[in-house]
Amino acid sequence: MHKKHTQNYVKDYFFTKVNIFKFIITVFHLVGLLGMVIPDLRVYFQFLTPFHLLLCTSLLFYFHKDWSFSFYLFTVLAFGLGYGSEVLGVHTGFPFGSYTYGPVLGFQLFEVPLLIGINWLLLVYISGEVFHKKIKNDYLAAFSSAIIMVLLDVLIEPVAVKLDFWSWENDLIPASNFVGWLGVAFLIQLIYRKSNFIKINPLSLYLLFNLAAFFLLLNILL
């Protein structure tokens, strides 16, 4: 009985902590939404964008369960491939098109904010879990998760341009951006699928929903 009571206590404590972190994520997205929509506050919340992304990533990985070599290798590859594709894109126009980053996303290396690598890692991690147990075939699961990332990018792109995250040549978002996103996302999602670490995180899908709702509402309200 004592062992069962202890297990129930641990389970309830974990459930409560997860809900607290979910509440924090929702509050930060709602406050961020309000700040971006009100013109007088927008410049301050643009400045806070990197901190917002880092906070969400930190909260997410607080609940990550498997800090194995395989996971660390995945994070390095996801960050490196995502960031590397952006550096290539900025300097050559391949694979996304011709664009440049503004100052909003913070410190840049090779004219690309370091935060972009973290963004790729975050999006692959939270979208990869959607089909983690639903689809057994690695290639189909990776492609399906990459489609989710492209759909997210469809929501993000117009908002990012308006908020000076980045800007496109001739102010037009090219179709090549979404094709490029699909290709890079598929590659990193395949690495995610092939990597041997525990992929269940109680915040992943909740954070994915919050991000999608956040950018959807900004598309409507900005």
From TrEMBL:
TM region(s), chain numbering: 20-38, 44-62, 69-85, 105-127, 139-160, 172-191, 203-221
Keyword line: Membrane, Transmembrane, Transmembrane helix
Matches recorded under InterPro entries: CruF-like
One Pfam family, short name: Caroten_synth
Name of protein: Carotenoid biosynthesis protein
Record organism: Belliella alkalica
